[in-house]
Design brief:
Blueprint (H helix, E strand, L loop, with lengths): L3 E11 L2 E6 L6 H10 L3 E4 L2 E5 L2 E3 L7 E4 L3 E4 L5 E10 L10 E2 L6 E5 L6 H12 L18
Length: about 150
């Protein structure tokens, strides 16, 4: 049975492919979402994400809203929904070449990423490309995720 419910997370998407940003309050989910939006991703939800059948949506009262710490809450362009394809747990740096993992509840490829690094947004974009099979990851968190096209 697939998960249905609301979780504390942020979600962005590129071309309808959703990336769920997970971690405790204050870890940098909204900041990383903002940097991904700057790289061409689209906001799906910030702070709370409704999930049903692998589809992410914003709760209606939060739709299009993103908190920019130190500035306020902004209404940004957003998409109604996205098919989730990747989960990113924001955490301190882990091992250099971690074994592939899956989110236990959502059954998505799961990568751990330090959110404050200068390359964090690029690494999320690269992880999405690997999860979708558009680039090959030869060793590490997304090794064998899908065969690169």
């Amino acid at each position: 049975m697939r998960f249905a419910g609301q979780i504390h997370a942020s979600c962005v998407a590129r071309e309808g492919e959703g990336v769920l940003l997970l971690g405790p309050s204050g870890v940098g989910k909204s900041d990383l979402a903002l940097r991904l939006i700057d790289r061409g991703f689209c906001l799906i939800a910030d702070d709370r994400v409704d999930i049903a059948d692998g589809i992410a949506r914003a709760p209606s009262r939060l739709a299009g809203l993103l908190e920019v710490r130190g500035l306020g809450i902004f209404h940004l362009p957003w998409r109604v929904e996205a098919q989730l394809v990747l989960a990113v747990e924001l955490a301190p740096p882990s091992e250099r070449l971690p074994a592939p993992r899956r989110h236990a509840v959502l059954d998505l490829p799961l990568v751990l990423l330090e959110p404050g690094g200068a390359s964090a947004a690029f690494r999320v974009a690269l992880a999405l490309e690997a999860a979708m099979g558009r680039v090959a990851c030869h060793a590490g968190a997304l090794a064998g995720a899908r065969d690169a096209a």
